């Protein structure tokens, strides 16, 4: 996000972060499509990129805290995130239909 776009960032830190991530994902997606990837390939690559970054950060945090990364803890966190996303997207879809 460039400096001139900082004013469009919502004051809520979660929403600001979501906006930033969305812009990054959109930019990466656009680059991949311009390189000849299909829509599905580009979307999957973006998702993989964010999962890879998140898992790498989880490993760094664990090691900085003096412990080894725990794949089971990561799987649980991922399952929890997917469960929340499923509920959120279902609610959004139901809201769009009304």
Tell me the series of helices and strands, N- to C-terminal.
Answer: HHH
Total helical elements: 3
In helices, the fraction of residues equals over 70%
The residue ranges in which pLDDT falls below 50 over 5 or more consecutive positions are: none
Provide the residue-averaged pLDDT: 86
Record field, number of beta strands: 0
Shape category: globular
Q: N-to-C terminal Cα separation, in Å?
A: 34 Å
Rg of Cα set: 17 Å
Structural class: mainly alpha
| Percent of residues in β-strands | under 5%
Question: Main sheet, how many strands, which sense, barrel?
Answer: none
Total domains: 2
Write the layout of secondary structure elements.
Layout: H1 13-34, H2 39-64, H3 71-97
Helix pairs in contact: 1-2
Report on the structure:
- The protein folds into two domains: 1-67, no CATH class; 70-98.
- Helix content is 77%, strand content 0%.
- It has helices spanning 13-34, 39-64, 71-97.
- The longest helix is centred in the C-terminal third of the chain and has 27 residues, at 71-97.
- Helix 1 (13-34) packs across helix 2 (39-64).
- It is mainly α and 98 residues long.
- The relative contact order is 0.05.
- The mean pLDDT is 86.
What can be said about this structure in brief?
With 98 residues, the chain is mainly alpha-helical. Helices cover 77% and strands 0% of the residues.
Which tags fit this structure?
98 residues, mainly alpha, 2 domains, 3 helices, 77% helix, globular
């Amino acid at each position: 996000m460039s400096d001139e776009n900082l004013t469009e960032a919502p004051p809520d830190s979660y929403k600001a972060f979501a906006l930033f991530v969305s812009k990054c994902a959109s930019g990466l997606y656009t680059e991949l499509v311009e390189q000849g990837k299909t829509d599905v390939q580009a979307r999957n690559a973006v998702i993989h990129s964010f999962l890879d970054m998140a898992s790498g950060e989880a490993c760094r945090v664990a090691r900085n805290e003096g412990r080894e990364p725990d794949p089971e803890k990561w799987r649980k966190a991922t399952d929890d995130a997917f469960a929340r996303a499923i509920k959120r997207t279902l609610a959004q879809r139901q809201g769009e239909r009304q």
